[in-house]
């Protein structure tokens, strides 16, 4: 565990709760790179001493940061920074860009391929069009804080997005669809499966061929009907699914 510079202690005269001030101070160490991805952070007792607050206060702050996906606890080992993890669970209908921003991560995207194809049987079924109809295919490497997280391939009916391939690429597909084609997502259906990473995707993601991954398929619709079918391969070590269950 690396030594770190002293942390600014919470101010008891401020109106914000001590746990909130402690949480923001610790998040700042991740955001500015003082605590790097994979680094083990000080234990609760040491953090309590460093910030001048109780261990209960520290525990509250760490739990919130862990829930947001920036930390991971390993039983018997300690707590580690996990600054490039996307947490999927019960959430609203958002784009990858919005999802990343909500987690406090810097979104990154590299276009791998953009072309027009004839819809396969699978794509046609998902988009509710005839097999062989033209679709736009957009394949991208998605990143968070400059670390590769997944490879996503989106298919859209050409009839819904004429001229899409002539547009300047944008970080957010949904912003482009809204601005140029008046498409506003209304609902989406997602299916998650556990799979492995093929050689082509493994090279892009910086992991070994056959590494575990989440295979995610998403069909997104607007008021007219399905306009997007996305197939994603998400790194198993940087993508999590969490749910909170209630009686």
TrEMBL record:
Keyword DNA-binding part of the UniProt annotation: yes
Alphabetically ordered keywords of this record: DNA-binding, Transcription, Transcription regulation
Record has Phosphoprotein as a keyword: no
Residue span(s) of domain HTH gntR-type: 16-84
Pfam family, one: GntR
InterPro entries: Bact_HTH_transcr_reg, Chorismate_lyase_/UTRA_dom_sf, Tscrpt_reg_HTH_GntR, UTRA, WH-like_DNA-bd_sf, WH_DNA-bd_sf
Source organism superkingdom: Bacteria
Protein known as: GntR family transcriptional regulator
Biological source species: Neoaquamicrobium sediminum
